[in-house]
Amino acid sequence: MRDIQRVFLIVLDSFGVGEAPDAGEYGDIGSHTLRTVTACENLEIPNLTRMGLYRIPDIGCQPREMTTELWGSYGKMAEASKGKDTTTGHWELAGLVSQEAMPVFPQGFPDEVIRAFTEATGRGVLCNRPYSGTQVIADYGEEHIRTGKWIVYTSADSVFQLAAHEEVVSVEELYEACRKARKILQGPYGVGRVIARPFAGEAPSFYRTSRRHDFSLKPGGMVLPKLLQMNQLDTIAIGKIYDIFAGVGFDAPHVTQNNAEGMAMTESCLKEDFHGLCFTNLVDFDMLYGHRNDPAGYAGALTEFDRWLGDFLPRLGERDCLVITADHGCDPGTPSTDHSREYVPVCIYSKELPPRPIGIRKSFADLGRTIAAWFGISEGIQGESFAEIWP
Fold first, then answer.
1. pLDDT of the residue at 366
2. What residue ranges define each of the domains in the chain, with the CATH number in brackets?
């Protein structure tokens, strides 16, 4: 078994690499996030290319300049869980396959949920239907300021989103309201995440502030961070990872506001003496570009990540391993602004692991099971390890 001491697992949130076999069941035929951004003139990702990104089987697109250099191992994974939301995708990456999709509310939340929430918080509710996060504060912000009512909205994802102006409702009251909503939203109403969406400014220039916070369900089974923790290994959560797992398997969150902070914090962990997993989510790809149908913005963010990657890779130690993947797709080139059911990439670099093709995996959980195997743990989570390709 190869001697891996530290794994840096980076999720490029929404970076899909082509429609999954069951994309038709989700209305996502033709979705291909990578192909869309590859067509952008501003995309420059030589380091991801050298890690094998465009060598993934049936990738369906090529960079403007291909290279014969190969630094890493590469492949792609289909999602075995039902649904295509952030929480489900991350849980499956961590070895937990969800047999049922988390509930969504395309008509808004039922009266009994809204009534219970209103009684629990002492404030009324505006909107209560699927909406763009920026448009909803533009359309309801003034009425919210005038009445003090919450702006409640959802999307195609399994989320209950709660917006409030920071000068009308304190951020702490907003967070407490989300905690109350989380207690209400269980069972058939158990959305993956309750999300606090504070905003500020004046009409018509309201803007969302950086103090977003997610309140997730707890995983319904064993997940990789908890398994590692039980085996006395370190687990570090960067970005929204701690929230996605409701803290399960992590000692404390390392909160970030954007990709730049997430990359900087991941880089700082190189200096830490830990044995285990550093798990990072870079959210801007999804939040700022995928959901807003901005291919050029997505390509620019990937280019920035690739430049950072060029500095990060040479600094990895002899027994370090970098894994780059995603949790779902969000093709900015389709009419939809929602997540897309796509394969996700796997690109792996380590001085301990010579470049190998990983192939096409049937579940994201295979990655979690492989990481566990690198640490000498053979059981405990779902998935099929591919650690044996490095004898």
1. 98
2. 6-99+218-389 (3.40.720.10), 111-216 (3.30.70.1250)
